Amino acid sequence: MKSYNNNYVQSQRDKNIASLLAIFLGWTGVHKFYLGKIKLGVLYAVFSFTFIPFFLSVIDFLVLITMRQQEFESKYNVDIPFTTPKNWRSRQVDRRNRRRGKTIIFSDEKPYYDRAPERKPDVTFRTTIPKVVGLSANKAYQEGLKLFEDYQYRNALERFQAALLINRENPQILFQMACCNSLLEQKEDLFNNMQKAIKNGFKDFDKIQTLDALAYFRIQIEFDAFKDSGFTKWQIQDEKEALNEIKSPETIAPEVEIIEENQEPLSTDELLAELKKLGELRQNGVLTDEQFAAQKQKLFA
After folding, report:
1. Helix, coil or strand: residue 256
2. What pTM value is reported for the model?
3. Which of 94, 124, 187, 260 holds its CA 20 to 30 A away from the CA of 10?
């Protein structure tokens, strides 16, 4: 294959220069001449006294400025005619040679067309992956909030977990997961997620003490100790030990008081106190799950 001297290396057109020529001198067709579009450049120059080239040059500018660099290279830099002292190849001849499988070699290195694809995968990966990841995390979190508002707590928890896999240790996501755990009465997961949320920067302790979704959290035996420590000590009481203490002769619980359905509505503080009492009775084995659910339903009746 014939190789040309290195002194006659193919020149490269620059996308930014072409864009600037299009916006400032495009009405005269300068950018078309620069890009090798000789006939179009002549037409722009002929009609430069009208407004038509002006509008077309604005469109050309927008097309060039938004065009990917790789597309620009393949469109305007691959087919550039070049000159040697004794030979000149036009764009049409160069294109015909490529169709026949011929490759022009400018040096002893690999051909130009063999080198270009090596840069493509690396550039594409670095520019697209971070954007997709960020959007996916935000989308999963927003979907979780919508499901949470629609009372679909299990589905909301799954979406929050998906967001957490991408944006790990985010305190707001962990707090929303703790709210779902509370409404689903998942004590161990609730304590774990709430602890991580506070550890990673969640500071709205008033919301913890007032939010309705965390009512189950506030009726737990350990909550008062958590609150007194400023939510820094997270020691969950072992249920077996608590049950043994309750069943000892000194700490036998009194008979369960049946809640009447027709009593007057309870205030928020009274309701929390009753829920806490019922939770303790269930954890200590005095109430079964069915009895706890029945008594809880009467409280909210």
Report:
1. coil
2. 0.41
3. 124
Question: What are the extents of the domains in the chain?
Answer: 6-109, 126-215, 238-301
- CATH placement of domain 126-215: 1.25.40.10
Cα distance between residue 128 and residue 94, in whole Å? 34
Contact 217, 224 (CB under 8 A): no
- Non-local CB neighbours of 220 within 8 Å, separated by 6+ positions: 187, 276, 279
Instruction: Give the pair of three-digit tokens for residue 168.
Output: 């790990």
Residue 171 tokens, joined: 């305190």
Which pLDDT tens digit goes with each residue over 159-214? Answer: 999 999 988 889 999 999 999 999 998 989 989 999 899 999 998 989 998 999 99
| b (16+ CB within 10 A) / e for 196-234 | bbbeeebeeeeebeeeebbbbbbbbeebeebeeeebeeb
